[in-house]
Amino acid sequence: MEATIRTLRERVESRIARKRGEDVFWPREFRDLGGEDQVLRALRSLVREKRLERLGYGVYGRAVVSRLSGASILYSQNGFLGAARQALTKLGVPWEPSEAERDYNEGRSTQIPLNPVVQVKGRFSRRLRDGNHELVLARYLLEVQKHFDPPSPVLVEKDW
């Protein structure tokens, strides 16, 4: 019985294939397979082969090749928004659906929200994008408004 020597790229690829329910991956998930530079090189080669899609700094998503155009497209059950939400969850960033999405789901609106918008509770400044789609981060304005009451008209007149 021969021992097969597998390259780091093959080991990364097989680990991605084993993670069926996950569509988003971080380079640190493959830290135990090799050095950081080697892992990044393996991930870049998978992006070139259209097996992964780069979504942002250190964020990669599962990809497939489109039968129509031959370009790589993100393979996620809920599209780009689902992959972005999975990335935020993996990073430990608390998030909630946007107000427009909640209104639609609760029947208060008939407008279907098309833009990928997520309300973020903590500090998060990365950009997540796939082609022309970019995740829009909405901050909690209600929390900010609680701390800052509107100034009284007297103070506004004195400041001018």
Overview of this protein structure:
This protein is α+β, with helices and mostly antiparallel strands. It folds into 2 domains: 1-75, Winged helix-like DNA-binding domain superfamily/Winged helix DNA-binding domain (Arc Repressor Mutant, subunit A); 78-160, no CATH class. Helix content is 36%, strand content 20%. It is built from 6 helices and 9 strands, in the order H-E-H-E-E-E-H-E-H-E-E-E-E-H-H. It has helices at residues 8-18, 36-48, 79-91, 99-105, 141-147, 153-159, and strands at 24-25, 52-56, 59-65, 72-74, 95-97, 117-120, 129-130, 133-134, 136-139. The strands form 3 sheets. Strands 1, 2, 3 and 4 form a 4-stranded antiparallel β-sheet that branches. Strand 7 (129-130) and strand 8 form a beta hairpin. The longest helix is centred in the first third of the chain and has 13 residues, at 36-48.
Strand-helix topology:
Elements: H1 8-18, E1 24-25, H2 36-48, E2 52-56, E3 59-65, E4 72-74, H3 79-91, E5 95-97, H4 99-105, E6 117-120, E7 129-130, E8 133-134, E9 136-139, H5 141-147, H6 153-159
List keywords for this structure.
4-stranded antiparallel sheet; 36% helix; 2 domains; 6 helices; 160 residues; 9 strands; 3-stranded mixed sheet; alpha+beta; disordered C terminus; Arc Repressor Mutant, subunit A
